[in-house]
Amino acid sequence: MFFILIFCSISSFVDHHGRLRVHGSKLIDSNGDIIVLRGVSFGSSPGFYNVNAIKQLWNQWKTTCIRVPVDLSDGDLAIESLYKAVFSAVKVGIYVLIDLVGESPDDEAREFFIRISSDFGHFPNIIYGFSKSSEDSVSLLIKTIRRIDRLNLIVLGNQTELNNFSGDVKLDYNVAYAIHVYAGDDNEELKELVEFAVNSSLYLFVTESAATNSSEDGDLFLEKYSDLISYLNEKDISWIAKSISSKNESSSAFELNADPWKVWKTTDLKKWGVYIRDKLNWTFYNAEKK
Ligand SMILES: *[C@@H]1O[C@H](CO)[C@@H](O)[C@H](O)[C@H]1NC(C)=O
Ligand SMILES: *[C@@H]1O[C@H](CO)[C@@H](O)[C@H](O)[C@H]1NC(C)=O
Ligand SMILES: *[C@@H]1O[C@H](CO)[C@@H](O)[C@H](O)[C@H]1NC(C)=O
Ligand SMILES: *[C@@H]1O[C@H](CO)[C@@H](O)[C@H](O)[C@H]1NC(C)=O
Ligand SMILES: *[C@@H]1O[C@H](CO)[C@@H](O)[C@H](O)[C@H]1NC(C)=O
Ligand SMILES: *[C@@H]1O[C@H](CO)[C@@H](O)[C@H](O)[C@H]1NC(C)=O
Fold first, then answer.
1. Could you please report the per-residue DSSP string of 158-203?
2. Which residue has the higher pLDDT, 129 or 132?
3. Which GO terms describe its biological process (predicted)?
4. Using a 6 Å cutoff on CB, does residue 26 contact ligand 3?
5. In this predicted structure, what is the pLDDT of residue 157?
6. Under 8 Å CB-to-CB from 21, ≥6 apart: which residues?
7. Tens digits of per-residue pLDDT, 213-247?
């Protein structure tokens, strides 16, 4: 017992789970056990990309995965923020989804993935994400990553791909499919999509979610969101909520004047921030005990 306590205190979440692999319509860890990641997405507030923030996201919120959206048109700041976030996530021992967003030409996207898979591919913490709508671009980027990193999970951020590849065509041995879930939108088709994924042995990963509609602002539909999250938890689907930022938007977790470097208090958080912190923390301690 004493040994177990010591072991737990020095071993991080990623030490414990290792590299992730898609197995049928589930995600499994290096022990072969089903794992579900739950966390938060960063946004356009650069101050939050720091180790102190990411430590709190793990220690207080029980975030097991952060998502870092990278838009190459933002230039050096996007890359600097990414490197800070990745090194912090590795230090803290949680997973990090590096998600290329925006409309970058294939050659720039390719260069980006060569760079980050060379720099980070040896860490089991890393998950790659991108969104391309042509099959050629998708194959090109998968091949680019796989030449350098044969193992870590890749999340394809486009439903067109999901619809195209009904499980007969294996794009790669370790890919998942991103979906976005906004409680204020019509989510009629979600259950059918999940059923389709289960039937076709595909793993869905909710890389963006919020209680607002997809405009990310306006009313919070918290009851609907809570139902959606319960459903995802029941289906072992990983989910990530928007957003670690202090924008004047209701899907942004922090108040405008919150200090990213401080120890956060409840008063630093908007209503949504308090909700998602408590939801993540509750789920971490309770969801697995079905
Ligand atoms: C998280 O949940 C645990 C167990 O229920 C509780 O003891 C702890 O205070 C919670 N943490 C936060 C930051 O709410
Ligand atoms: C999906 O199918 C459409 C229509 O057949 C095609 O234009 C598109 O390139 C396909 N996308 C992928 C990623 O295969
Ligand atoms: C898929 O790609 C299309 C075309 O680039 C884009 O309009 C759409 O938003 C993408 N969907 C997702 C879920 O990323
Ligand atoms: C999933 O498979 C079942 C059993 O074969 C079938 O009845 C159902 O229609 C399928 N659902 C979807 C969305 O493909
Ligand atoms: C989404 O919410 C915003 C803010 O409340 C609102 O202006 C917009 O009309 C909504 N969009 C849809 C499609 O419901
Ligand atoms: C936040 O946005 C709302 C409109 O969405 C506006 O009325 C309000 O003045 C803004 N607050 C600040 C501090 O900019």
1. -HHHHHH--SSS-S-SSEEEEEEEETTS--TTHHHHHHHHHHTT--
2. 129
3. polysaccharide catabolic process
4. no
5. 83
6. 27, 28, 29, 30, 153, 174
7. 999 999 999 999 999 999 999 999 999 999 999 99
Domains identified in the chain and CATH numbers = 30-286 (3.20.20.80)
Q: Kindly give the number of the ligand 2 atom that is closest to the alpha carbon of 165.
A: 14
Residues of the chain with pLDDT > 70, as a percent, come to 91
Among all bound ligands, the one having the nearest atom to the CA of 214 is 5
User: How many A from CA of 159 to the centre of ligand 3?
Assistant: 7
pTM metric for this prediction = 0.91
State which of 215, 220, 248 you would mutate to test the pocket of ligand 5, scoring each by most atoms of that ligand within 8 A of its C-beta.
215
**Which long-range contacts does 31-37 make (Cβ < 8 Å, 24+ apart)?**
34/236, 36/233, 36/236, 36/237, 36/238, 36/287, 37/64, 37/65, 37/95, 37/205, 37/238, 37/239, 37/240
Nearest atom of ligand 2 to the alpha carbon of 138:
13
Question: How many Cβ atoms sit within 10 Å of the Cβ of residue 13?
Answer: 19
**With b meaning 16 or more CB within 10 Å and e meaning fewer, what string describes 96-127?**
bbbbbbeebeeeebbebbeebbeebbebbbbb
Any idea which residue has 């952060």 for tokens?
Answer: 66
